[in-house]
Amino acid sequence: MPIHTVLGPIEAADLGRTSMHEHLLSDLRIWAKTPTELPPEGVEMGPELMAYLRWNFLSIPENIVLHDPTVAAEELAHVVTAGGSGVLELTLDGMGRRLAELPEISRRSGVHVMVGAGFYVEPTMPDDVRTADVDALTELLLTQLREGIDGTGIRPALLGEIGTSYPVTDAEWRSLRAAARAGAETGAAVYTHQSFRGMAGTEVLEVLIEEGMSPDRVIIGHLDEFWDKAYHRDIAQAGAVLAYDTFGSDFYYGSADLRNPTDAERLEMVEWLLSEGYADQLVIAQDVWAQANLRRNRGRGYDHLFARLALYRDHRRRPRGRGPDPHPPPPPTPGASMTDNTPTAAPAVVGNAVLIVVDIQGGTGTVALGDGGIPHMGGAAERRPRVRRTVDLARAAGVPVVWIQEVHKPSLVDIGRELDGAEGPHCIEGDDGTEIAAWLDPRPEEFVVRKRRYSAFFGTELEIVLKAYKAETLFLVGGLTDVCIHYTAVDAHQHD
Ligand SMILES: [Zn+2]
Known about the structure:
The protein is α/β, with parallel strands linked by helices and 496 residues long. The chain is built from 13 helices and 18 strands. The longest helix has 17 residues, at 170-186. 41% of the residues are buried. The structure holds zinc ion. Residues 21, 23, 90, 161, 287, 289 line the site of zinc ion.
């Protein structure tokens, strides 16, 4: 399925790192607040206003308008320098959308821009939308998905940000149901805007599923603005994608108790979600929507996510042995069994041990990408944290970890008899999903052995690697016990 950008369709493989929620041209003055502290007199929008805006983000209406396409293109261009490739522009009608100007911004910045369709919170809805029934709204969305929005020919990449207040209003429920029906019919994902005032995400997800959405096509937005582990876990367990999408904003709304989370807090959420095994159910973004977010005004810019978070990830992957590890393995997950799959000092370990992780692939697990040719085993969600913990414990105990990665050429010339059974083409070279699952965080000093058959020994350098480690005991962990694990175990036995 192609991805629709404002400059036309592209293949998923041509879209690199993408921020899943931004605004380039928007007008969200509906959120403006009466100031408790008056703004400094005679100071124009710019860096000098930042001290005031940090504490009074919504108190100058001009702050929450992004009006200049030239500025947008200049600010967005930094994304490319920082290694990014695309942004989703989720401004809808009633939010100051200026669709016709987006292609030029995309061209000038060199960044893929994708847009959404649907309706935001009720106060922004035009009267005819606010009063329309679900069928009429569904028809409207289907037309936009199939033919483009408002005669621009620009087709949405997904539905969103679908607005919900807390509590969700009747008109918003109708808009959600319509989005779900249109999404279910076309395969478009639905991205919601959740209020920071309450936990409506679970109920919203239930309604979307009731209307036919597959949960893995639903993204529940702004969850980093309501940090509650049980709430986030419920949404993850139901199979939906969580959006921690306000990175780079650390503002107050006129008082100490109304504030954004900090990036440190957001990263803590990310670490937690990864440790729970839900790395492939997370998207991140910044939701730039104000002057105070722009670089020219001393904000973090559209590139913060790509520049700073890549640094953070590399820092975490630093090889050990140069001072104390700032990121020791996470403590045991409550409820996770301490006894199964745990290579501690159990008597079963004889001599040098090596942990072999077989075919746990999936890359960054970006929702927009297509499926692999092998259905997931049931219970993957509960198993992931255990695999992650096994890897962490191995590293902590000095047991080398070896990654096995199955790959095949796009032409399938090397896939052989793997297609004889129930499997379709899978693990194609170059697909993000073929990379080792990012939530396992493979490290540069660890070996990756590529294989083209079930057994990790067949035609690979695994034996050399195991000799290098003087391996005497192997631990195997992986996806399909009766196939790749089985063949690898049998060969390990035969190789003594
Ligand atoms: Zn937004």
